[in-house]
Design goal:
single chain; 306 residues; mainly beta; 14-stranded antiparallel barrel; globular
């Protein structure tokens, strides 16, 4: 048990350091990729998160943020082995900056559509592919300048009931930046009874990121989990058609309770580390960027399957 935990913590530390070192990963993390077909065709989620007020380093000013999310997945089965998982997601990020801050954006919206094709070649191998379309901008920004697109391709190998390994390669255009091609590992490993390691694209309340987490099944309907993930948001601004960006690495703990088999509620708390805000002009050239102090981020999510 101790040796297994040491291995897992080493993997999580590697994932956390990798994520912080390669920020474009999280921009491809528009939705979590689950290579296994869903048991039921519809999946509905609502989430909320609050990032507590924090000071900008080496500068005057502070801010806090509220996040809301709604997502809907609808799976279409063409055959027993070929599925289409339609993912629709909306995020709303409400920023509140002090008057002394150079960052003055407020309501940022994100719309995402990802149709994920899943082909189960045999009992071990699943192939996936998806185009990615998203619009990410502050209220009032020019619609045509806020679109990005790309795609994901990948595979998953199920070695047995306790282990699956995979790799997805994501490519996504960037607002006023060059497109990125990113490999994304996918790991799900039940290394001892009731303990599971998950690495790849994962959820934290209303947000997604790249990282790793360890889950412990406290009871049949309750799981405790902890880990680290990296998040990146890059969006078009209303004023001067500029570009805003926020990056961070939350270290989190969460509890998920399945109240009934098809309905769950999640509560999480985290410490946001490595937070940074960046402001660029309409051509993607830096105007200013500032780190901000570590702060609390907490909230929850409701999940319905039907």
């Amino acid at each position: 048990m101790k040796n297994a935990l040491r291995k897992v913590m080493g993997i999580l530390m590697f994932m956390g350091l990798s994520a912080v070192g390669m920020p474009v990963f999280a921009q491809v993390a528009v939705v979590p990729v689950d290579p296994e077909p869903a048991v039921k065709p519809f999946d509905l989620r609502f989430g909320y998160g609050y990032q507590a007020n924090t000071d900008l380093k080496k500068s005057s000013g502070d801010f806090h943020r509220n996040d809301w999310m709604g997502s809907f997945n609808a799976q279409v089965g063409f055959s027993d082995d070929f599925k289409l998982d339609n993912v629709l997601r909306y995020e709303y990020h409400n920023y509140n900056f002090s008057n002394s801050s150079r960052f003055q954006w407020d309501n940022v919206h994100r719309f995402v559509y990802v149709p994920v094709f899943l082909w189960r070649a045999n009992e071990h191998w699943t192939i996936l592919g998806a185009p990615v379309l998203q619009w990410y901008a502050e209220s009032g920004a020019k619609l045509s300048d806020a679109f990005t697109g790309g795609g994901l391709v990948g595979f998953n190998y199920t070695a047995g009931p306790d282990l699956s390994l995979g790799l997805a390669v994501g490519a996504l255009s960037q607002i006023e930046d060059s497109a990125k091609v990113i490999p994304i590992p996918l790991v799900k490993w039940q290394f001892v009874e009731d303990w599971t390691l998950r690495v790849g694209l994962n959820r934290l309340g209303p947000t997604n990121g790249l990282g790793g987490e360890i889950g412990w099944k406290l009871a049949k309907t309750v799981e405790l989990a902890g880990g680290i993930q990296y998040q990146r948001r890059r969006f078009r601004l209303d004023k001067n058609n500029a570009v805003g960006q926020e990056t961070m690495a939350p270290v989190f703990a969460k509890v998920t309770w399945w109240m009934v088999p098809d309905v769950s509620v999640e509560f999480f708390g985290s410490v946001v580390t490595n937070g940074n805000l960046r402001l660029e002009n309409k051509n993607g050239h830096k105007i200013t960027d500032k780190d901000y102090d570590n702060t609390a981020y907490f909230g929850g999510q409701l999940h319905f399957i039907f």
